[in-house]
């Protein structure tokens, strides 16, 4: 299979992302991880940009032994000298020279005619050749450059000893078909092209960086440039993890592979995100938090029966432990039962249906249904206290300048509905007074405790109460996304236990 070389520019083009600034220690940490990932070529920075960047490139050059280390340079002697200094001590150094070739850049930015561009690049290549055996030359904005001029620039770079010629789509302008064709044309028409490697460098302005890079491979590109997580100038660069996984997953189509240690991808992505502060969106291909997560019931059912129904790659490939089945309002019974098994519960069909109905009702109110939420549903469900009283509705009126007032409706085991209203010195007190009136029980609240089930603004509240009546003391527990409802549920739960206890005590007395 054809090998595609991977050129990582996270530390150079990636660092050009607005707001990103990596110090030497951070660049080194990323470079070590890139080496572990098996990156062939690491562009460590732009040494002429600042003394700090020169020092960082030098630290990377001295430390990394397995990958080629590259420094970027304009086609100017002073930049080339800076790269020379920065790459001292490198095992395998390479200079990356560039000059823009498109009409827009020639006219407005460089203020040069075609021939001046050609000769400026030639001079730079000749100067660099004295000090470097490996040179990459980039025709900046190649994507908008006349194809015949690009052929001339490439031929000149080969003549002057470049080992790689890069064809950047600097502004992410091209469509894959057009970009792939440039490579095909250069391969067919430039004399000596077989002596060098052709490289693709894409930007994601129209969201086509990965597609364009893959089109370049089909057109004959030998090397792909990009960054981890696709960070970079404006909309970013090609995300290398996307190219690597596309080649791996569709090797049948591309017939090409990289030397990357794919199981290091997830770790590398997390490190780059942490050190650059560029958060990876959840839906980002390959490395987003949801890339291997499934929420909808039909997908979860498919995944449980056979993973390939909804996964074209396995999470293990990129170093993740396993796919996630996320429980939410779109989930179905199969996934719910699987979660219960994971949590150590086996429910009968009827109990499962009841717990599932509660889960769906909760999922309607809450974004993430956590393990704690499910446990709380199960604990409620597994409790077999008969429901002598069922809480139907509660209404509470509260204002900081008025007396709290509550109205509750209880349904009795005999099927009667009892509605009562009461005031209280707080909302919970008003609810409890109304429940006392509706239940007809005289009890003392001897303990009340509230805590959150899991975290977050939409976490459920869990209330525990202890009620006392004569010699009897009972506990009650209630859970809800609303703490007043949780308080009411806990109270009614305790009343049910009290009624059950009194009935069983009466039964025992009658027997004796
Ligand atoms: C597509 C890319 O990603 S290219 C890389 C972009 N990265 C960066 O620019 C980051 C680092 N850059 C810097 O720190 C600074 O721009 C420096 C140190 C390189 C240069 O700073 P300054 O000397 O102040 O110049 P400034 O950035 O304002 O302008 C760029 C100059 O370089 C020229 N230039 C641009 N590209 C090239 C090139 N490849 N070869 C030669 N000259 C070039 C411009 O025409 C302009 O020249 P002028 O001053 O004669 O008009
Ligand atoms: C320096 C070059 C290769 C570049 O980053 C670009 O053209 O996008
Ligand atoms: Mg770029």
From TrEMBL:
Xref: SMART domains: LeuA_dimer (SM00917)
Family annotation (SUPFAM superfamilies): 2-isopropylmalate synthase LeuA, allosteric (dimerisation) domain (SSF110921), Aldolase (SSF51569)
Ligand binding (Mn(2+)): 13, 201, 203, 237
Required cofactor(s): Mn(2+)
Pathway linked to the protein: Amino-acid biosynthesis; L-leucine biosynthesis; L-leucine from 3-methyl-2-oxobutanoate: step 1/4
Region (Regulatory domain): 390-512
Pfam assignment, any one: HCS_D2
Keywords from the named record: Amino-acid biosynthesis, Branched-chain amino acid biosynthesis, Cytoplasm, Leucine biosynthesis, Manganese, Metal-binding, Transferase
Catalytic activity: 3-methyl-2-oxobutanoate + acetyl-CoA + H2O = (2S)-2-isopropylmalate + CoA + H(+)
An example Gene Ontology biological process: L-leucine biosynthetic process
Listed EC numbers: 2.3.3.13
Domain of life: Bacteria
One function term, GO molecular function aspect: manganese ion binding
PANTHER family assigned: 2-ISOPROPYLMALATE SYNTHASE 1, CHLOROPLASTIC-RELATED (PTHR10277:SF9), HOMOCITRATE SYNTHASE-RELATED (PTHR10277)
NCBIfam families: leuA_bact, PRK00915.1-3, PRK00915.1-5
The family this protein is said to belong to: Belongs to the alpha-IPM synthase/homocitrate synthase family. LeuA type 1 subfamily.
Functional summary from the UniProt entry: Catalyzes the condensation of the acetyl group of acetyl-CoA with 3-methyl-2-oxobutanoate (2-ketoisovalerate) to form 3-carboxy-3-hydroxy-4-methylpentanoate (2-isopropylmalate).
Name of the protein this chain belongs to: 2-isopropylmalate synthase
Organism: Fontibacillus phaseoli
């Amino acid at each position: 299979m054809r090998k595609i070389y991977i050129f990582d520019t996270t530390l150079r083009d990636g660092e050009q992302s607005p707001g990103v600034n990596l110090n030497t220690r951070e660049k080194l940490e990323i470079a070590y991880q890139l080496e572990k990932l098996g990156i062939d070529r690491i562009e460590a920075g732009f040494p002429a940009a600042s003394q700090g960047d020169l020092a960082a490139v030098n630290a990377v050059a001295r430390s990394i032994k397995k990958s080629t280390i590259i420094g970027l340079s304009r086609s100017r002697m002073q930049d080339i000298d800076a790269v020379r200094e920065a790459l001292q001590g490198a095992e395998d150094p390479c200079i990356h020279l560039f000059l823009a070739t498109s009409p827009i850049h020639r006219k407005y930015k460089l203020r040069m005619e075609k021939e001046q561009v050609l000769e400026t690049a030639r001079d730079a290549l000749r100067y660099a050749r004295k000090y470097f055996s490996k040179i990459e030359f980039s025709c900046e904005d190649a994507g908008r450059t006349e194809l015949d001029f690009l052929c001339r620039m490439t031929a000149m770079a080969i003549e002057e000893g470049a080992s790689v010629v890069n064809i950047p789509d600097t502004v992410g302008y091209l469509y894959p078909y057009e970009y792939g064709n440039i490579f095909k044309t250069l391969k067919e028409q430039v004399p000596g092209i077989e002596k060098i490697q052709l490289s693709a460098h894409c930007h994601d302005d129209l969201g086509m960086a990965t597609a364009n890079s893959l089109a370049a491979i089909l057109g004959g590109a030998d090397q792909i440039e990009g960054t981890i997580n696709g960070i970079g100038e404006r909309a970013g660069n090609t995300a290398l993890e996307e190219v690597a996984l596309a080649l791996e997953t569709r090797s049948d189509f591309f017939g090409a592979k990289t030397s990357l240690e794919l199981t290091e991808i997830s770790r590398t992505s997390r490190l780059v995100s942490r050190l650059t502060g560029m958060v990876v969106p959840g839906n980002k291909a390959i490395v987003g938090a949801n890339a291997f997560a499934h929420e909808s019931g039909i997908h979860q059912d498919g995944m449980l029966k056979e993973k390939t129904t909804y996964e074209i790659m396995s999470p293990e490939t990129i170093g993740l432990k396993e796919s996630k089945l996320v429980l939410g309002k779109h989930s179905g019974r199969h996934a719910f039962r699987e979660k219960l098994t994971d949590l150590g519960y086996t429910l009968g069909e009827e109990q499962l249906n009841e717990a599932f109905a509660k889960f769906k009702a909760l999922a309607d109110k809450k974004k993430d249904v956590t393990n704690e939420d499910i446990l709380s549903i199960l604990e409620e469900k597994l409790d077999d206290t008969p429901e002598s009283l069922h809480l139907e509705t509660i209404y509470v009126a509260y204002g900081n300048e008025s007396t709290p007032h509550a109205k509750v409706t209880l349904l009795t085991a005999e099927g009667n509905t009892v509605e009562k209203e009461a005031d209280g010195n707080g909302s919970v007190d008003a609810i409890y007074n109304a429940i006392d009136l509706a239940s007809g029980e005289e009890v003392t609240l001897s303990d009340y405790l509230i805590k959150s089930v899991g975290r977050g603004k939409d976490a459920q509240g869990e209330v525990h109460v202890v009620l006392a009546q004569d010699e009897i003391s009972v506990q009650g527990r209630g859970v809800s996304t609303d703490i007043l409802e949780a308080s009411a549920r806990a109270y009614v739960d305790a009343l049910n236990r009290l009624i059950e206890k009194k009935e069983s005590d009466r039964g025992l007395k009658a027997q004796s």
